[in-house]
């Protein structure tokens, strides 16, 4: 069955959107990871992949960047898939925290981090993956990335080393959580797995394919491989919707209405379930740590294609 055209002039719309935002260099590149401060602020890419694998792109879609926090939905999905939802929920909650991604505020009473999209929650997910797979945990993540992108995975060792040498806050979070028995693996090994997943490299084209796999309920749009169970995808998208954009998740949900995840390198992915995956890369960030142009571009795409989950219409609905 052929897929309906998302919008006859979608390619022209993306070209125009890219051109309109090309000169907008508002925001700042991440400085707390020194290597990310060297990112080219001009690089700008938009990529959309439909659930059937049709791709619409504009700009520097083949320039690699590190996943950073955009890796979190995928490591969470892997944990749900390999360990099971009930078990994972006992260790990481699914409640929006209203705090920035790197918040060190922990609810000592409940002894679980608020959600897996903030650093504390993602570190506990790393510890769960370590507990399950031991020294093979990173390999599991690499295999997953390979299935999602169709390419051998790459890690940016400069970014890894750079973040490792300045990861004082993440180190503090993981050691504090270990002290509170919120994780049971070695804190340093847990941190290393987390930093490794953050340093994995993708292109904007790859990221839209990864988002499209989530949009299609876990089946890869090109290979047809079932990568995640539908229940895992539903869980991941729910958490991305309520927590993926941290302390601007409410505003994002109101305006854009799509599950999304951003990373401090400037990657942003949004998922229109049953329709398409959207990815944007632009290194300059807003005050919440989201790609400035990524937020703008995604807002405009969602508006133009009627993608807000609570609107009655949508181009592919
Ligand atoms: N928001 C992000 O992308 C944060 C990821 C980064 N590696 C950190 O832990 O600080």
UniProtKB/TrEMBL annotation:
Keyword Hydrolase belongs to the record: yes
GO molecular function: glutaminase activity
UniProt-recorded name of the protein: Glutaminase
Ligand binding (substrate): 69, 119, 163, 170, 194, 246, 264
Ranges in coiled-coil conformation: none
Catalytic activities: L-glutamine + H2O = L-glutamate + NH4(+)
Annotated GO biological process: glutamate biosynthetic process; L-glutamine catabolic process
Gene: glsA
Keywords, alphabetical: Acetylation, Hydrolase
Transmembrane annotation, as ranges: none
EC numbers, comma separated: 3.5.1.2
Subunit text: Homotetramer.
Entries under NCBIfam families matching the protein: Gln_ase
Keyword Hydrolase: yes
Homology family: Belongs to the glutaminase family.
